[in-house]
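WARN no homologs supplied; continuing
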Amino acid sequence: MKNLILKLATAATLVLALACGGKNKDTTVAVSGVTLPAVLTVEAPGTAELRATITPDNANNKNVSWTSSDPTKVTVPAGNNSTTITVTGVAPGTSTITVTTADGNKTATCTVTAVTPVLPTSVTISPKPVEFEVGGTATLTAAILPADATNKNVTWSINPPSGVATLSGTGLTRTVTGTGAGTATVTVTTAAGNRTDTCQVTVRQQVVHPTGVAISPKPLSIGRGTSATLTATVNPPNADNKNVTWSISPTTFATLSATTGSTITVTGTAQGTATVTVTTVDGAKTDTCAVEVTAPVPLVSVSLTPSPLTVASNRTASLTATPNPANASVASYTWTSSDPTKATVPSGTQPGTITVTGVAQGSTTITVTARDADGGTKTATCNVTVGPPATDATYIGFDTGLLMDNAAQAAYNGQVINAVDVASNIVYACGYDPSAGKPTFWKNGVKTVLPLSAGMTGGEAKAICIENGTAYVAGYELNDSDPILAKLWVISSAGAVTTPALPDFEALGTTLDQGIWAFGVCRLNGNTYMCGGVDSYDYYSDYYEYGVGALVVWNLTPGTTSPFAIITYESMGEADCNEAYSIAAGADNTLYVGCMDGLISLNFAAMQYGTLIDWYEGCVYSVKYQGGATPAVYACGYLDSNPWPACYWRKAGTAAATVTELPKAPAAEWAEARDMFITSSGVVHCVGNDDMTGEGDLAPKYWIGTAVQNIAGWSGNTDKGGANTIVIK
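OK structure emitted
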């Protein structure tokens, strides 16, 4: 038994010995080498970092020791066995730094040169000062002198640290970015010597730069010896710098009247083709117009319209010369009056339409002499009768008739008068006949029921514009089932009615839904523009889905590629743009449109499809443009807040519009101003109504300034309905 135990113990010892024998193998990774940078420079006094690299990287023992061959020049830390140390420059000179590994005594050396530091004598920022717009940037660079300065590290700062500009970047270069209008100071400081420099940064409010410029009309064809006007429209209309320059090439065939200004005259000098170029001063945006100069078309005759002419001795009237043929190359018109004591005309060379000014009762003969490009002349005459002085009359149109100086005009009794105008002593009006539900036009009290499209049964004429004896009437037509459709009627001075086709919305992918309305019309540069809306208003069920509609402005310029602008609730920053109620022609091809929440400007020539230039928080029913030394846009309507008063606005330049509230009757729920007239002296006349119950019980109202005027037999009378329109001529 004892022998068996001994044998087992011996076997176990042998097995344990064999098992442990595998674990006694040496796995240490030895150092095979060490390296240092060949050279290093350190300031004296000063410090620098020195790093040793041991191979292989996974060596077990990376302890090292360091020595300096000349500690009077460069020292190393005593007792530091790390692979990275800080050497210290003591005095100018050279020392060899040696590193030795604890494992294997591997060595490496580095020649360290201690130098006397070259301190910066100055630091300069360039460029400086800098100026740019909010959102703009500039790159600033710090230059240190002398160029061999030992330490070129710098720090940057800006004051104020926020609100005007920010800094970004590293090293000697920084980018400064404008964040708000104002002035800031950027400072750079050297790490050695504490040298500084500053740069003033001016950040301007963001400038509206031109995005383009358009010449109109183009292309242009003129006869030799004749002239035409070209207009440059800078886009957007609110660009800060709209200055342009003009050039023509070659100069052989045509000349320009000027090289600057928004409008120039081009004159054909020889047959051929030239190119006119306009360039914006800001941004060098360009547009070109091909000008073809053709052989002159001889002038056969010239006629005058209207002829004969009657004018009051304190009034003016327009007289237009029409060449025959219409494309005759007329170089100039000269006008004379046989008796300037009775009526005068402008002297010298004038355009084809002039203003005849009545002076005293009597008669005179106006003669026009038209000269063609080859020097041939034709004349025409017009007998002018000058009547007694005229006095301004005030015309107000109502839901039930028309007043002239507070006297009801019998021809309009019981008729809805939506718009009235007076030109050359002729009274024009439009509206509709409630008994028939038809759109209606009046000229000096003579009524014309305007024609409707096939299948349409009714409608309403909403606005009127008179130019050279022609009436342009905007409105709409409808029947019991189809959508309401916008309509334009053109009535000639002889009474002929035409209905120009309007752009097809559906052909351009726009859904008509329940209706297209036209509420306003104006003329600008010989072209017609209307405004209204496309919406989901059902005429018969009075159902209206908010937000579906859009404001529309029609551009009826022949051959235009931009037949209309559609402006939505979203595109105007959530201003209510479901309908436009009025449109007025301003300067520089600009149209002004009143909508539910404000005033919009458009410029088709510049392809600018609408800018909300003022938010009125109310409904704008009428817009008027007043030129002169201080141009202004006037609008009237009501404020959309308690006590919901009628009001008018005046906007001049870029400043916010001023608003004037108009008093309403104490018992009225709300009031509105539907139309306005501004006299040459700036007095504002407004007409509209008080709603006595909030349910459409309208009583007419007339204000001069803020003073309520008495309308004999009509003021406060809800049987008369609201006052819709006013003109004083």
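Confidence is low (pLDDT under 50) at residues 1-24, 507-513, 536-548, 569-576.
OK
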